Amino acid sequence: MGGAQDAIQRALAGLERDCRSPGHEYWPVDIDLRDLSDLQRSRLVGPIQIADTQLLLLAHRHRGQLVTLDTGTRELASGTRYANSPMVL
Q1: Is the pLDDT of residue 1 over 90?
Q2: Residue 51 and residue 8: Cα distance in Å, rounded?
Q3: C-beta of residue 33 within 8 angstroms of C-beta of residue 54
């Protein structure tokens, strides 16, 4: 296996390990993006914002937080019901 394949295998192995940890809780992706407000829809400019919005809504629904390095996530969430869901490192 080459570099990319090795990285994918390591990531999947880490995911499997983390999913077995005692504090892990699975959140199924059951968010309906058709329910977004006009403000939320106006901030979707590409697939990255759509994925980030799904993650923010999941975190909000489960009273969790989305931890990210992406500072744009804070702007995506500002003024919405999930404004407190992102934690930008």
Answers
A1: no
A2: 20
A3: yes
* Chain Cα centroid distance, residue 80: 16
What confidence tier does 67 reach under pLDDT thresholds 50, 70, 90?
A: very high
Give residue for tokens 């909000």: 60
Beta bridge mates, 68? 88
DSSP codes joined into one string, 52-73? HHHHHHHHHHTT--EEES-THH
Task: Provide the CA 72 distance to its chain's centre, in angstroms.
Answer: 13
**Pairing mode of beta strands 86-88, 66-68:** parallel
**pLDDT per position as a tens digit, 43-61:** 999 999 999 999 999 999 9
Q: Rounded CA gap, 41 and 35, in Å?
A: 9
